[in-house]
Write a structure and sequence with these properties.
- This protein has a six-stranded mixed beta sheet, with helices on both faces.
- With 455 residues, the protein is α/β, with parallel strands linked by helices.
């Protein structure tokens, strides 16, 4: 049975995201002194007492205004209400009951879900009771004074909220694969998320920068659970001002670091840009598994040679990630979107894979036999004594040699290429550490490395 859902509703800038951060015990939701920061509905796990539930943060609702994203925000909020067991209507206690609050309360009275009123920004108990009293006029029952910043009053509200949540049985322990959808603005990341889940989970618009917060959704297939995370489009640093976009992109970078697999999304029409190359470099630096998704393939005029020509372009621009699977899709039509998860499964397993020391040394022996290590000007040749995998995620192999300085970049690339050809590691970067005699002597007293060498 899925966790019950608690929807957070309110007009813009009343502190909904701060309230969500208080409930989930973190700072995942973007908080900024600007209306309309949150647009999509974002799900976060939370618990109170012995009960677990999901909190859904929604965008600020404004009626009688259809400019820009407001109709989409209303649609997302309405969807959240339909799937929620209870909704918390957040209002601003310092501003008092506004016309927008009254209009929203009128709309909420016609919804089937129970509504609790949280009067936010009540920083003191005495003033809070007086501030909350004004919101009896909403006609939604008792208003509860709370302070999202300090946490006062939140516990009393949650005690009441629990009475509206259904009993939940213990959830089965299913492995969860975290998948981050990364790319430049307007390459179709949100459309891709919607195509996965079969609903308008994220707002899709031709306006660049529609997605601001990270949006996650759970998808289950063949006994596996995937947490898909849509992120804000990442532009060049010089185009980013401090503010909402700055926080959004920081969230996107954190999503890369937390992900098991990153879907590097490319616009097939625009092709691979310099910014795409920089993003790919970030994925590699963070050691994440990666699948290259070429979206909007339906918009490309094709003939017999089209895909081969496009593959050559990718080989040219992404020559340093030849190991990453690539798949051509259309999020708009759903073409080949389900096959992405097949590539995710492969990259995920390879990213966590461990190879025995004996197999690694067989690869080294064959590589050295075909191409001997270089000799320096003094006639001293490099020697590889042995190698072993010291960690996974990403796979990291330590090579113990007589002197790392005797191995130039060309030979190092040759050895890494042999590991790729012989061992695979499809979809994941690998790291090769070259350690000399002095490193070996100092490592004898390092328990963590010694344990790694025994595995």
């Amino acid at each position: 049975m899925a966790l019950p859902i608690v929807a957070i509703i309110g007009r813009p800038n009343v502190g909904k995201s701060t309230f969500v951060n208080r409930l989930v015990g973190g700072k995942d939701a973007i908080v900024h002194d600007e209306p309309g920061v949150t647009r999509d509905r974002t799900y976060k796990p939370a618990f109170w007492c012995d009960r677990e539930f999901q909190v859904v943060d929604t965008g600020g609702i404004v009626f009688d205004d259809d400019t820009e994203f407001l109709p989409y925000i209303r649609e997302q909020a309405f969807t959240a209400l339909q799937e929620a067991s209870v909704a918390i209507f957040v209002v601003d206690g310092q501003q008092g009951a506004t016309t927008a609050d009254l209009e929203l309360a009128e709309w909420l009275r016609h919804q089937a879900v129970p509504i609790l009123v949280a009067v936010n920004k009540c920083e003191s108990i005495e003033q809070g009771l007086a501030q909350a009293g004004e919101f009896w006029s909403l006609g939604l029952g008792e208003p509860y004074p709370v302070s999202s910043i300090h946490g006062s009053g939140v516990g009393d509200l949650l005690d009441v909220m629990l009475t509206h949540l259904p009993e939940t049985s213990e959830l089965p322990d299913i492995e969860e694969i975290k998948v981050a959808i990364i790319g430049r603005p307007n390459v179709g990341k949100s459309s891709l998320l919607n195509a996965f889940v079969g609903e308008n989970r994220a707002i899709v618009s031709p306006i660049s920068g529609t997605t601001r917060d990270t949006i996650d959704m759970l998808v289950e297939r063949d006994g596996k659970r995937y947490r898909l995370v849509d992120t804000a489009g990442i532009r060049k640093k010089k185009h980013i001002d401090y503010g909402t976009e700055f926080f959004s992109i920081n969230r996107a970078f954190k999503a890369i670091r937390r992900a098991d697999v990153v879907l590097m999304t490319i616009d097939a029409v625009d092709g691979i840009t310099e910014q795409d190359q920089k993003l790919m470099g970030r994925i590699i630096d963070d050691g994440r598994a990666c699948v290259i998704v070429i979206n909007k393939w339906d918009a490309i005029e094709k003939d017999t040679y089209t895909i081969n020509e496009y593959n050559r372009k990718i080989d040219d621009k992404f020559y340093y990630v030849s190991w990453a699977p690539r798949i051509y899709v259309s999020a708009l039509t759903g073409q080949r979107v389900p096959k992405i998860l097949d590539s995710v499964d492969l990259a995920y397993s390879e990213h966590r894979r461990r190879v025995t020391t004996s197999v690694i040394n067989e690869v080294i022996e064959d590589a050295v036999m075909w191409k001997s290590p270089p000799t320096n000007r003094q006639g001293r040749q490099g020697k590889i004594y042995y190698g072993t995998q010291v960690r996974a995620e990403p796979p990291t192999i330590a090579l113990f040699v007589n002197d790392p300085k005797r191995f130039g970049d060309n030979y190092r690339r040759y050895i890494e290429r042999q590991f790729r050809e012989q061992l695979g590691f499809v979809g994941t970067p690998i790291r090769v550490l070259w350690r000399g005699k002095k490193s070996r002597e100092s490592d004898r007293d390092t328990p963590s490395l010694n344990r790694a060498l025994r595995t």
